[in-house]
Amino acid sequence: MHAYFFSKNPNPEYACHWLVSLAEGFSELGISSYGNRNIALLANGNGFLIKYEEGFSHKEADFLIFGAESYKDNDDMDQVIQQIVKSKNKKCVSIFIDSFDGVRTPGFSKGAQSCDIVLKCHYNKKYKYPKNFYPWQFGVTNRILDSIHPLSFEDKKKQLLLNFRTKHQLRDYMNELLLPIYGQYMEINTTTETFSAEGFGEKDLLYYKQTKGRHFPQYYDRLSESQYCAAYGGVFAIPWGNYSKYTAFIARKINEIIPLFKYDRVRQWDSWRLWEAWTAACCTIHVDFEKYGCVLSVMPTNGVHYIGVNIGQPHKIEEILSDEKRVREIAENGRNFVLEHYTPKVVAQRLLELVSTYRDSH
Description:
The chain has helices spanning 17-28, 77-86, 110-113, 142-147, 169-185, 202-210, 217-224, 245-257, 272-279, 318-321, 324-341, 344-361, and strands at 2-6, 32-35, 39-41, 48-50, 63-67, 93-98, 117-120, 133-135, 157-161, 187-189, 226-230, 235-237, 265-267, 283-287, 307-309. By secondary structure, the chain is α/β, with parallel strands linked by helices. The strands form four sheets. Strands 2-1-5-6-7-8 form a six-stranded parallel beta sheet. Helix 1 packs across helix 12 (344-361) and helix 9 (272-279) packs across helix 11 (324-341).
């Protein structure tokens, strides 16, 4: 079988995380990955993970995959995707990966809606989506799995990584609630990285360029030696005004002045940090996914794979933080959860099952 990845990006070194994860999984399953351009130079320098090959087009593919990043600064993407989808072979299933945050993301566009399947990151069951939307995730790539080497829980520092580089409304809100609690149980490490690759080896420099500055060996080392990691992010939202990110913002601000609604959902909740923290066997702290509507294709369990915070009862997490044995179990369970359900091979297999189900019903 063959997969064909379409990516339109002016940076030839950039290797889209979601495309890379799928292509790595496909490779392990014996599925070839082609594209409209070469993507993801291999660390050994021996070719590309997704390769451009003259004479092979999307018309020969079994799977046709688009990434939402193609919509950045490309006003004609609706027409481009619609034309490509229209010209594919009848057995080919077209897939759009919508990794953007916000309310009206590229998955709602005409181009994405011409595809058979839209894989939606940041999926939240409290929003209404088109019928071809399915929950998806940031997940991990082999780069992340190879870069993180967790110490045993006993050898880790009793510290919480609270070192966000980007401000989010939810992060500020959660920190205000939880900082007094954290201080009773652990040290807090707020060290962040500079946006510099100075001193990087050849392999790490390649990954730094391919991820647009998201690969830092020292950050992965810090994760690997920490017992806890705050992995929350995004925006708390209310059940009103959710037509666009602008109307949602205005509705939230009005609600802060005249509190008519409680926060009942979270947008933009997924992140690389979440999956890196799980992979590093940190006891990972986020919001309660079930309560706030966050959906993954395979769901973790609050209190088993992570600590999920209910902002109405923040002190409930002390029941876990005061029990070191349970903290250790959650940290270990989180890593095992990723290794069992979210390695590139397993994710690719799950997509094949989704494609098979789609074909059976169409």
